[in-house]
Amino acid sequence: MADDVLAGYRVTRQPYYRPVADEVALFEAAYSVRMPMMLKGPTGCGKTRFVEYMAWKLSRPLITVACHEDMTASDLVGRFLLEASGTRWQDGPLALAARHGAICYLDEVVEARQDTTVVIHPLTDNRRVLPLEKKGELVRAHPDFQIVISYNPGYQSLMKDLKQSTKQRFGALDFGYPEHAVEAEIVAHETGVSAEVADKLVAIAERARNLKGHGLDEGLSTRMLIHAGSLIAQGVSPLAACGVALVRPITDDPDMRDALDAAVATFF
Ligand code: ADP
User: Fold this and answer.
1) CA 106, 113, 128 angle in degrees (round to 5)?
2) Looking at residue 155, what is its pLDDT?
3) Do residues 15 and 81 both lie within one domain?
């Protein structure tokens, strides 16, 4: 019965996930004790895909929330809706997951304001409860419920960081760009380009990643390589595909753009 509520959140098809180290076994062990987990790493390196894969492997529904700075606690917990016949309570995604036993994935949680983040605290310690203050209800988390957050350590500033009191409630797994051969395998699998093209795309990314902190704020992500590969698989020339999917999105600086275009031209 309860599971029907979450029918739309089931991961029914196995997502493609290429394990990089022992993250699958570690996450399984963490889930078996329902440890709240933090997936750390730059954008586009596989965190979301990993949690989708783990939800499939553990046969748990997955409720994902993209966090942003205007998000309020009510967006997570729920609110009363006005209807013709009166008011009706609607669980937010966190309450839904806690009540019915889903994995709740809060993506880029550092984007949310700190007063929003603290609503997860009572769910992340032994209490495993979620107070719905407006409704006057204390939800006891379903035994299958787990909370997972993603966190990009590169983005934090003094204004925007997770409080220690939040961080210390989680176990954490580090994600980074996979090593060359593995990343090429992922790019080839996701886009259908040849191993040779995938290999070159990864080599370009590695060059660009060396420029992080020297004119580039972020490394070129696996996601961007997949964009480039998909364009190439559509018949776009590799030079144009890399311009559109790799170089233009990552920099607005004309000198950096020319330097990256030149790097691409040495491969294609
Ligand atoms: P993040 O959540 O870290 O921002 P995603 O999980 O959305 O990034 O990863 C971006 C894309 O990169 C995914 O859609 C997937 O195609 C690919 N990807 C990255 N790492 C892996 C991996 N280890 N196995 C399979 N696909 C991966």
Assistant:
1) 50
2) 63
3) yes
